[in-house]
Structures are given as C-alpha cells and as structure tokens.
C-alpha cells in the first residue's frame, strides 16, 4: 500500500484529475476497466508524478493507504453502480469512495445509504470545469459525511481551483446527495446562461444584421463589464473562429441542434417536484429540445408559416445603443436565472434536511467551473449579508441592477417579439419578474375555474377558511369544513 489516493476511470476527466493529484504531490493509483487505456495513460503522463497502475480492482485497492480514498470518474448510471460494487467488495470499513461524475443526486443518496450500511463512506462530488478544469483546478462540490470530508479536505483544497483571493473552490456542501444536487443546479444555470448568450447572439445576428466576427467583438467588450465570465469569454472565441475547410465562420458550419446529457433536464424535473419555478432553466432546456426536433423543423421549412422581417427597427446610428440594451437585458435575465437556481437549492436544502450555505456555494463557483463569473463575488456577498434569503433579486446590488436594466430588457423583448426572433429565456425571465412584481395575479380566476368544474375550493381575501361556491345558484357561497 503506497498510493495516497486512487482514480477509477481514465477517460478525459479521470485522466486529468489523476494528473492534477499527481502534480500536487499525491501518489495516485490508477485503474481502468480496459488495461490498454491505463497503459496509454502511463505512456503519456507517467513522468508527471508518481502513479501506480493496476490491472485489477483488487490490485488497485491493495495499493491504497488506509483509510482508502478511491475517486471514480465513470459514466453515470449502471457503470457507476458496477464500479462501486466492485470496489466495496474488496474495501474495508472506513474507506471512502468518491463519485466525481455527474450522477443524479437521488442515485447518490441511494448509494450513500447502501454504502453507509456496509461501513463505507460514499461521497457524491460535483466536479465542474471540463477536462481543463479537472487538470488545472476544478470547482468541487462534495457531499457525504463530515468524517469523509475531514479526510478529503486537504487533498481537495490542493487540487481545486483558487479564486482571485486565493480561497480554494471547494466546500463540503452537506450530507449524502447535497453535492451532486448543487452540481446539477450549476448545470441548469449553465444551460440558462448559454441560452441567454445564444439569444443575444441571434438578436444581433438576425435583428441587427451583424456578422459573427462583429458579434464576437461585442462579447469581448461585454467581458469587461458586469458580464465578465468564462462563458462570455469563450463565446467571443467561438464567434471569431473561421472554418478551415470552407473559410466560413465556424458557427455557420455547425449543425444547429444542441445536445445535452441530462443534467439540465434533471434540474427542471426536480424543480417541478419541489415546486420552484425555474423558468429560465426550463426554457433553456426546451430551447435545446426544439433545436433537435428535426422532423418538426424540416416540416416548418417545407410548409412555411408567414412571419415578420427579422430586421429590427433600429437604424445604424442607434445600433450601438441597442447592443447596450441587449447587454442589459442579458444581465437582468441572468440574475433571474441565478436567483431561480439558488431558490431551487434552498428548497432542496429544506426538503432533504441539508444545511446548505448559499454564500459558500457562490464562493466555490467563482473559479474553476463553467459558470464562473465576476458577479459571483457579489452573489456570495448578497447571501452573506442575509439580503438574498428570499431571493437574490432583493439583494440591493442586484435589485438596483435589475431596476436600472428593466427598460432595456423590455425594449429588447419587444423588438424580438415584433420581429419574430425567439428569445424564450429573455422573455420568460421578464415574465417571471413581472409576475413577481404584480400585487394581484390572475390566479384568482384559475381558483374560480377550479372551484366551478371540480369543487376544488378557494380562500377569500376578507375572511379565513376554505370556501366553495354553489355555482348552480350563483352568488351563494357555502362554507366548507377544512
Ligand atoms: C461542467 C459541465 C459538465 C457538463 C457539460 C456538458 O460543469 O464541467 O457542466 O459537467 O457535462 O457542460 O453538459 P451537456 O452535455 O448536458 O450540455
């Protein structure tokens, strides 16, 4: 037993994580189901640190110092269950299995319970930052027991990304599935953020008739504002990229079907069951869904509907002002998406009994992860000060930001609607904001309808209790027992 930690699964993410550990002085046992991949890994990276390659799970486990730490980075679902079982069969009480993949948090809860019964710590750990992050420093969101965290903390703090103030982007999120839950919502926010950027691009492309390179320049400028973030930065890079083969902007050569692996969908499904409206994330998932509806979209081209000219009523002198409106609309919508995501985390925290520190979540998202952004400093300050407890939208910094950007937000959605360019996350975020502002919502009418067709009852504004109207005799309310 010589290795300090082991990694199972040497595909892109697992290989990068192993190298990251080794570069920080850890002796790393590595195992992959197909040994050829392990050999390949050794051939390429053995010089970067001390690795212990194993051919079997038994050999891998035997090479680890106790209490053992085995990090698994394999496909979510059955492959993860298989690896856990193989490891647990040869591990001892007190050993730790870390699942660093994108697991569904309920699977993590189930696995944690099953492993705890066998005396093994199971830690579902969200890891964000892609391959590069895994190598150079990801943002890490571990769940699991306090005891396992004590053991993992120094190692994770060493390999995690460091925020600009030097703090490592890792924190113990909470017990069992809390870490994977927070990673899931991170991905949901990632979907909303990406869709908002894509909508901004589309509005400039079709509405303002700008070229991809010009729009790339705009994103480069935006990256020096409140929007400073990794996703805005890479957007500029993508838009500036020219295809080698055709000489066209690469974005015009890429098929416009957005893929997804499921975490965004889980975020929305979970939000529905927790009854938290995450409208921005939901619209982002559905927008990807529509992009992939090939048959439907082909039919709409073959048998087209009429619609307005997408060109906005914005002349050349007004163009820069309108671009600024789009930037503000993006910022306001983005705040809504984050606020909704944090509300989902808060609701899950209550529901599952996790004590999640929201300021801490924002802090560990400041570097390493895909949604890293300058304004996460402000988000963590907002949660710290207690002004974001009900919603981030009420924290003074964001409230005044939204208030200032609101006219631009409306101007953008108005033009988009008038000219037929879809911007589902911009417009649904605005609708959420307007819904939130409304003193009275038409939900009263819905309650009336429900009471009429199904005797579902309603509450009154002027009297406590539960009421039902005898609709056949209009106007005669009947008091129902609670
Ligand atoms: C990250 C990412 C990553 C995710 C990809 C792809 O935080 O590093 O969230 O975990 O797998 O972004 O996700 P989709 O294929 O669903 O777009």
TrEMBL record:
Boundaries of every 6-phosphogluconate dehydrogenase C-terminal domain copy: 179-472
GO molecular function term, any single one: phosphogluconate dehydrogenase (decarboxylating) activity
Class in the EC hierarchy, top level: oxidoreductase
Pathway: Carbohydrate degradation; pentose phosphate pathway; D-ribulose 5-phosphate from D-glucose 6-phosphate (oxidative stage): step 3/3
Keyword Membrane tagged: no
Domain of life: Bacteria
Amino-acid positions noted as binding substrate in the UniProt annotation, renumbered to this chain: 102, 128-130, 186-187, 191, 261, 288, 450, 456
One of the protein's GO biological processes: pentose-phosphate shunt
Record: residues binding NADP(+): 9-14, 32-34, 74-76, 102
InterPro entries referenced in this protein's UniProt entry, alphabetically: 6-PGluconate_DH-like_C_sf, 6PGD_dom2, 6PGDH_C, 6PGDH_Gnd/GntZ, 6PGDH_NADP-bd, NAD(P)-bd_dom_sf, Pgluconate_DH
Keywords from the named record: Gluconate utilization, NADP, Oxidoreductase, Pentose shunt
One Pfam entry name: NAD_binding_2
SMART domains: 6PGD (SM01350)
Family named by the database record: Belongs to the 6-phosphogluconate dehydrogenase family.
Oligomer and partners: Homodimer.
Role played: Catalyzes the oxidative decarboxylation of 6-phosphogluconate to ribulose 5-phosphate and CO(2), with concomitant reduction of NADP to NADPH.
Annotated protein name in UniProt: 6-phosphogluconate dehydrogenase, decarboxylating
Native species: Bifidobacterium choloepi
């Amino acid at each position: 037993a010589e290795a300090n930690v082991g990694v199972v699964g040497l595909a892109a993410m697992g290989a990068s994580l192993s190298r990251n550990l080794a570069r920080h002085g850890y002796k790393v046992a590595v195992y992959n189901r197909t040994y050829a991949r392990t050999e390949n890994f050794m051939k390429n990276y053995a010089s970067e640190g001390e690795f212990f390659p194993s051919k079997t799970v038994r050999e891998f486990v035997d090479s680890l110092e106790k209490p053992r730490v085995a990090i698994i980075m394999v496909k979510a679902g059955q492959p993860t269950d298989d690896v856990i079982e193989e490891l647990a069969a040869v591990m001892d009480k007190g050993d730790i299995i870390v699942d660093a993949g994108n697991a569904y948090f309920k699977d993590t809860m189930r696995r944690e319970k099953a492993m705890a019964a066998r005396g093994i710590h199971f830690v579902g750990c969200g890891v964000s930052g892609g391959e590069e992050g895994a190598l150079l420093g990801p943002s890490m969101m571990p769940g699991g027991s306090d005891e396992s965290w004590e053991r993992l903390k120094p190692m994770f703090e060493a390999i995690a990304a460091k925020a600009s103030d030097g703090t490592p982007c890792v924190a113990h999120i909470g017990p069992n599935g809390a870490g994977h839950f927070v990673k899931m919502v991170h991905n949901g926010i990632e979907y909303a953020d990406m869709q908002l950027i894509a909508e901004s691009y589309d509005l400039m492309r079709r509405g303002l008739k700008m070229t991809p390179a010009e729009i790339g320049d705009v994103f480069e400028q935006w990256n020096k504002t409140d929007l400073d973030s990794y996703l805005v930065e890479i957007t500029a890079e993508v838009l500036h990229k020219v295809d080698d083969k055709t000489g066209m902007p690469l974005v015009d050569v890429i098929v416009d079907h957005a893929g997804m692996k499921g975490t965004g969908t889980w975020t929305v499904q979970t939000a529905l069951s927790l009854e938290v409206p995450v409208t921005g994330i939901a619209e982002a998932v559905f927008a990807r869904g529509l992009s992939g509806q090939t048959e439907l979209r082909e039919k709409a081209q073959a048998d087209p509907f009429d619609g307005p000219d997408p060109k906005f009523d914005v002349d050349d002198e007004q163009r820069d002002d309108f671009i600024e409106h789009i930037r503000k609309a993006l910022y306001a919508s983005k705040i809504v998406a984050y606020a909704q995501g944090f509300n989902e985390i808060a609701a899950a925290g209550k529901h599952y009994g996790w004590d999640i520190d929201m300021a801490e979540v924002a802090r560990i998202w400041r570097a390493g992860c895909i949604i890293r952004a300058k304004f996460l400093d402000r988000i963590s300050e907002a949660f710290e000060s207690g002004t974001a407890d009900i919603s981030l939208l009420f924290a003074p910094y964001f409230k005044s930001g939204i208030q200032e950007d609101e006219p631009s937000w409306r101007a953008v959605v108005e033009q988009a609607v008038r000219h037929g360019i879809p911007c589902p996350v911009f417009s649904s975020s605005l609708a959420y904001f307007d819904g939130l502002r409304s003193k009275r919502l038409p939900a009263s009418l819905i309650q009336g309808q429900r009471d009429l067709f199904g005797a579902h009852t309603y509450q009154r504004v002027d009297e406590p209790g539960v009421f039902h109207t005898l609709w056949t005799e209009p106007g005669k309310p009947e008091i129902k027992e609670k």
